[in-house]
């Protein structure tokens, strides 16, 4: 075994209220693909940012070729031969493909001016190497998500880097595109590059990775050769317990139809969405990132206009013009992006909880502060919120407690349909279990829940029925009895 | 800039469209007052617009980085007064030295704005709204409210922008040179490319190792330096320096940029656009009296044009966003 | 996990400090402002022996009351993450409209109604363009700043409107009780009204929500666009009211009336502790800041400092007031980070 080209020792990074990385270690070897595995919130993304110089670690050593280095800025990473392909394409939509590829690595002519002719030729060569047909003069905004990814590949290759980091590169790609990507990864590996492949999809980890490193809650759990472990071993390391315990599915009495959606369509985002939701049921929506699930939910909540189709809620026609309408009629939406859409971080907990129903807590426009506080306290207690006081700003809470505020805020409006979009994204395991348990309690009390999730175990563990979406359309429906992981994933990737 | 894509075509279309409107205006005004489109008069109109063109090009860089510089007109007044007083005190100073000094003084004022934006992190609108009145107030402190008139200025001081070369004034040639330098700067230097990048997507810029604040600082320095140079050119061209020089001119500059299709949201714009926007406004200002409209209409027209232009820009910039349905692509 | 539970008190013990933490934070800046008001007041008594005379004090209020009346709705607008740079031009437009109506023989009440109506329309146009086309308020109001004053120039050119009816003078020159002017009493009443509106009503709470996070406010069922449109219209209405008071006080209209006031109004608002980036601030803070600005400019007037030099002061104040807390917060955060890493 050769020596690691990159080694991290005892790296820590703390944010207010969160220890994102707690003394972790990592080794990358040339000519090997190392998987970094962990649940959301395990510290993978923070590690990527440390490795690319975006965050400076609080402590620990980074060694490249056995020599300690410091990473102060993204340019340091480049200097040390590290390039990264980030999860969301963090690139420049208004610039051309060539400009994006060479944003930090330009060629100059004899006058010291940028030599676009040369860079264009080099861009062409790089794209040909990647076997894609992209015009290097197109502005990036014209490209599909998959092609943007390939451009960021080309940018990573344009720097002659020995270490390539890929942060969930397959998250929004189709089945075919993923196969193309694997081919590229293998090619880079065969050229002797050390690759860090971040993923939480086991099939791909076993398909293309040589080694693994597992993180849990910001801590290093284990590392080794992929050939020495089974999927169950990795899962056990990731979650620290067996899967079944996380999803306490409460069997509930499923009643009559509460909501029905017929042929709902949007000009560009989704088409012909049909489903019923029954009392006391959790209806799961599964699909790849960008399959159009959130867009459908936002239309149900009155945030986007639809072009055709109809909805019924509680046997009445339901046509929300804005979220206020939907709330009034008993349908609420807990959005995916907690920090930007779900809560107002810089306002106190109690003001967040009462915001959607301020009208009901006021007399001729004046807020009844005592009643407001009572409502906030009731739901904070019910959700076992951990906070110093209800006047504390939400930004001071941990991710899990922030999510409790968001859920509390919507429960306080007494809805009968609650839509939760990626309810446990990026929160710790303890809070995750609390949220799941709570969702079980809700349906037991007769509420109906629509749960959008990209986590297969969560969907399979919680949902009574699953609807799978792909490219804006419903492609499959499963009942609890006939759902299998393979069938759901196959449907979601658009394979027929 | 890039002509191959649909959007690229639209953007360059925009400049052709503007050029077309300018041509139409020339024909229209020329048909009622033929002397207006005589080469001599056009050269005069260009001379009159030269300062606006330079300021618009510099302002464009600031706007590209999602900032705005409202202090340019006060910078002109301050730098103009400085060099006028220096000229009175040291009449032997060569005009070229005066020009370089004005660039330096203006650059310092711009750097002050830039530091407040970059290192202190105050929004640029607040910084430049503040320095707009600070710099203007300093003109009063410098001059004691007195005017510096033509007879106090030396002939060399006055001659530089008015000298002609190939039928165009030196002022016009300076504007042409500045425009070309800006074109090269935005298209063929790393700093130029980075300015587009930090304004287009600040987050991605950080991931690429670009310091957003630093590039904002650089654009403020450039804007200040150009404004300073225009300060000398203005005072020398109009042969008078006083406190109210170029009052509210910053509005014309911003208007020129907005008309030229520079996106106020940052990251989108071309030097051609800014220059054409300035020429468009310059034409209106010069044509109004010719077609018998009172110059009192100028302010309202530039205001109306700003509002209309931002509305039009906002529609054309509406980013299509990610489309999920495949059919919708076609 | 268990450690975390221990660190936090159980939920049922959540202390009941209704608003206290928030209020304490707000109070700090306002206390500082009051201290500065005291200094300015004392300095003025030293500059002029007549300063303490009730009539002199009453006179002092005239130079800031109209601006202060615009500062009240402007505070709400800035808290909601917007800004209106066109208020001074709106004054010019409204004043020209009143001058024109006067030549047509309108009475005092009609003049006041016309002034306020023109202001309201101007504000509504700002808000409509901004919310309809989703354009930043700064550019739109830079445009209308030029447009509204431009219209005033088109109508009036070099001319002046004078000879307003003598009854009309009451709005800007009249006294309600003793030395208390109509303008000043109006401002006090409005300040109380705005304080209640911002701090006690659902509307005020929604303004804060929008200013802190417009997306989350939208997702919480708040009609963000309608609230913003209303705020712009409100600012326009009060700019119109200020135009009535100002025109009545000086008894004439020129297109250059109230030039540069937008800067002073915004400075008053941020001096009062309103965050220029939105989301935080109080009417009480703005109320004190108004007096501080008024006293300082009056004192400078007593010392015969020309207006243009005072604008240096205003500009510096604007930058200092916004810059100082940012630097302070950064030092504080750095220190906190430092102590965290030691734990």
From TrEMBL, chain A:
Q: Which GO terms describe its cellular component?
A: plasma membrane
Q: Which GO terms describe its molecular function?
A: ATP binding; ATP hydrolysis activity
Q: Which InterPro entries match?
A: AAA+_ATPase (IPR003593), ABC_carbohydrate_import_ATPase (IPR050107), ABC_transporter-like_ATP-bd (IPR003439), ABC_transporter-like_CS (IPR017871), P-loop_NTPase (IPR027417)
In this protein, which residues make up the domain named ABC transporter? 6-242, 252-496
Could you confirm whether the keyword Cell division appears in this record? Answer: no
Q: Which UniProt keywords apply?
A: ATP-binding, Cell membrane, Membrane, Nucleotide-binding, Repeat, Sugar transport, Translocase, Transport
Compartment(s) where it occurs, according to its Swiss-Prot or TrEMBL record:
Cell membrane
List the transmembrane segments. Answer: none
Which SUPFAM superfamilies does UniProt cross-reference here?
Answer: P-loop containing nucleoside triphosphate hydrolases
Q: Does the keyword Zinc apply?
A: no
- What membrane topology does the UniProt entry give? Peripheral membrane protein
One short Pfam name that applies is ABC_tran
Protein name, UniProt field: D-ribose transporter ATP-binding protein
What organism is this sequence from?
Thalassospira alkalitolerans
The top of its lineage is: Bacteria, Pseudomonadati, Pseudomonadota, Alphaproteobacteria, Rhodospirillales
TrEMBL record, chain B:
Q: Name one Pfam family in it.
A: BPD_transp_2
UniProt main location, coarse: membrane
One GO cellular component this record assigns the protein to is: plasma membrane
Q: Which InterPro entries match?
A: ABC_transp_permease
Molecular function as annotated in GO: transmembrane transporter activity
Q: Which residues cross the membrane?
A: 16-37, 49-65, 72-90, 96-119, 126-145, 165-185, 217-235, 296-314
**Where, per UniProt, does this protein localize?**
Cell membrane
Q: Membrane topology type, per the record? A: Multi-pass membrane protein
Keywords for this protein = Cell membrane, Membrane, Transmembrane, Transmembrane helix
Listed name of the protein:
Branched-chain amino acid ABC transporter permease
Q: Which organism is it from?
A: Thalassospira alkalitolerans
Tell me the classification of the organism that encodes this protein: Bacteria, Pseudomonadati, Pseudomonadota, Alphaproteobacteria, Rhodospirillales
């Amino acid at each position: 075994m050769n020596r690691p080209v990159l080694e991290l020792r005892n790296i820590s990074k703390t944010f207010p209220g969160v220890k994102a990385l707690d003394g972790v270690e990592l080794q990358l070897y040339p000519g090997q693909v190392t998987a970094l595995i962990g649940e959301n919130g395990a510290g993978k993304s923070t590690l990527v940012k440390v490795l690319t110089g975006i965050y400076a670690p609080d402590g620990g050593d980074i060694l490249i070729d056995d020599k300690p280095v410091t990473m102060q800025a993204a340019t340091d990473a480049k200097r040390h031969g590290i390039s990264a392909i980030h999860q969301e394409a963090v690139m420049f939509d208004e610039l051309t493909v060539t400009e994006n590829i060479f944003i930090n690595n330009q060629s100059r002519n004899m006058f010291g001016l940028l030599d676009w002719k040369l860079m264009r030729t080099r861009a062409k060569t790089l794209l040909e190497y990647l076997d894609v047909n992209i015009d290097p003069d197109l502005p990036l905004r014209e490209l599909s998500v998959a092609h943007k990814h390939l451009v960021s590949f080309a940018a990573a290759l344009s720097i002659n880097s020995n270490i390539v980091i890929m942060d969930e590169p397959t998250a929004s790609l189709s089945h075919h595109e993923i196969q193309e990507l694997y081919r590229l990864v293998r090619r880079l590996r065969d050229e002797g590059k050390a690759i860090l492949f971040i993923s939480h999809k086991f099939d791909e980890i076993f398909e293309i990775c040589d080694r693994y490193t597992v993180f849990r809650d910001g801590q290093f759990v284990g590392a080794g050769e992929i050939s020495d472990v089974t999927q169950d071993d990795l899962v056990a390391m990731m979650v620290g317990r067996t899967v079944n315990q996380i999803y306490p599915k409460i069997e509930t009495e499923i009643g009559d139809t509460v909501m029905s959606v017929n042929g709902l369509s949007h000009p560009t985002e989704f088409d012909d969405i049909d489903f019923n939701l029954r009392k006391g049921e959790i209806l799961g929506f599964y699909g790849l990132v960008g399959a159009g699930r959130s867009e459908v939910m936002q239309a149900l909540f009155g945030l986007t206009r639809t072009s055709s189709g109809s909805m019924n809620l509680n046997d009445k026609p339901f046509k929300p013009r804005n979220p206020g309408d939907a709330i009034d009629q008993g349908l609420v939406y807990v959005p995916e992006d907690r920090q930007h859409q779900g809560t107002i971080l810089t306002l106190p907990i109690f003001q967040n909880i009462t915001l959607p129903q301020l009208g009901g807590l006021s007399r001729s426009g004046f807020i009844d502060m005592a009643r407001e506080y009572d409502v906030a306290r009731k739901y904070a207690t019910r959700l076992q919120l951990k906070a110093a006081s209800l006047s504390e700003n939400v930004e001071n809470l941990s991710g899990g407690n922030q999510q409790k505020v968001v859920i509390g805020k919507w429960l306080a409006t007494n809805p009968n349909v609650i839509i939760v979009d990626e309810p446990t994204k990026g929160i710790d395991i303890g809070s995750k279990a609390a949220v799941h348990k709570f969702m079980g309690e809700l349906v037991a009390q007769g509420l109906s829940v629509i749960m959008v999730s990209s986590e297969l175990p969560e969907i399979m563990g919680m949902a009574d029925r699953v609807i799978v979406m792909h490219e804006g359309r419903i492609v499959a429906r499963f009942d609890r009895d006939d759902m299998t992981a393979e069938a759901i994933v196959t449907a979601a990737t658009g394979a027929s | 800039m890039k002509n191959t894509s649909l959007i690229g075509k639209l953007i360059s279309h925009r400049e052709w469209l503007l050029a077309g409107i300018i041509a139409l205006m020339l024909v229209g005004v020329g048909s009622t007052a033929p002397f207006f489109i005589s080469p001599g008069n056009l050269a005069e109109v260009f001379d009159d617009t030269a300062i606006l063109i330079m300021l618009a090009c510099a302002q464009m860089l600031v706007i590209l980085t999602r900032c705005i510089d409202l202090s340019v007109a006060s910078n002109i007044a301050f730098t103009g007064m400085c060099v006028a007083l220096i000229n009175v005190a040291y009449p032997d100073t060569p005009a070229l030295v005066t020009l370089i000094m004005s660039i330096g003084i203006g650059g310092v004022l711009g750097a002050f704005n830039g530091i407040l934006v970059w290192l202190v992190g105050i929004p640029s609108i607040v910084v430049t709204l503040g320095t707009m009145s600070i710099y203007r107030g300093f003109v009063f402190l410098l001059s004691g409210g007195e005017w510096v008139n033509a007879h106090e200025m030396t002939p060399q001081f006055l001659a530089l922008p008015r000298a002609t070369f190939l039928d165009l004034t030196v002022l016009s040639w300076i504007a042409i040179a500045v425009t070309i330098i800006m074109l090269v700067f935005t298209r063929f230097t790393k700093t130029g490319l980075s300015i587009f990048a930090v304004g287009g997507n600040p987050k991605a810029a950080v991931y690429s190792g670009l310091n957003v604040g630093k590039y904002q600082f650089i654009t403020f320095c450039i804007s200040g330096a150009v404004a300073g140079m225009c300060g000398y050119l203005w005072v020398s061209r109009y042969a008078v320096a006083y406190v109210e020089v170029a009052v509210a001119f910053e509005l014309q500059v911003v208007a020129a940029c907005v008309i030229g299709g520079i996106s106020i949201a940052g990251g989108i714009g071309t030097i051609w656009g800014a220059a054409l926007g300035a020429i468009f406004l310059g034409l209106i200002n010069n044509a109004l009296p010719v077609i018998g409209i009172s110059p009192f209409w100028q302010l309202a027209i530039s205001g109306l044009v700003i509002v209309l232009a931002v509305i039009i820009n906002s529609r054309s910039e509406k980013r299509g966003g990610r489309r999920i349905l495949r059919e919708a692509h076609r | 996990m268990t450690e975390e539970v221990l660190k936090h008190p159980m939920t049922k013990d959540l202390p009941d400090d209704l608003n206290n933490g928030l209020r304490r934070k707000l109070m700090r800046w306002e206390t500082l402002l009051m201290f500065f008001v005291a200094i300015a007041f004392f300095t003025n008594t030293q500059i002029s022996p007549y300063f303490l005379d009730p009539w002199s004090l009453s006179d002092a209020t005239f130079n800031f009351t109209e601006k202060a009346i615009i500062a009240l709705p402007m505070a709400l607008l800035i808290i909601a993450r917007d800004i209106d740079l066109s208020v001074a031009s709106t004054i010019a437009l409204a004043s020209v409209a009143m001058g024109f109506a006067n030549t047509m023989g309108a009475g005092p009440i009609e003049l006041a109604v016309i002034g306020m109506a023109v202001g309201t329309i101007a504000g509504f146009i700002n808000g409509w363009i901004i919310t309809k086309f989703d354009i930043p308020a700064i550019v739109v109001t830079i445009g209308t700043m030029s447009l509204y004053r431009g219209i005033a120039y088109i109508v009036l050119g070099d001319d002046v409107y004078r000879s307003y009816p003598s009854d009309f003078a009451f709005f800007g020159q009249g006294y309600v009780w003793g030395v208390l002017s109509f303008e000043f009493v109006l401002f006090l009443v409005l300040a109380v009204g705005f304080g209640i509106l911002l701090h006690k009503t659902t509307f005020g709470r929604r303004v804060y929500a929008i200013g802190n996070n417009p997306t989350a406010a939208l997702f919480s069922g708040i009609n963000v666009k309608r609230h913003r449109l209303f705020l712009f219209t409100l600012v326009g209405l009060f700019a119109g009211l200020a135009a009535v008071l100002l025109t009545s006080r000086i008894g004439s209209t020129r297109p250059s009336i109230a030039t540069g006031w937008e800067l002073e109004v915004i400075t008053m608002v941020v001096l009062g502790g309103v965050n220029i980036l939105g989301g935080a601030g109080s009417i009480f803070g703005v109320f004190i800041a108004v007096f501080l600005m008024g006293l300082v400019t009056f004192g400078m007037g007593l010392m015969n400092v020309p207006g243009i030099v005072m604008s240096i002061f205003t500009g510096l104040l604007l930058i200092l007031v916004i810059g100082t807390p940012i630097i302070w917060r950064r030092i504080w955060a750095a220190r906190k980070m430092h102590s965290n890493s030691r734990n």
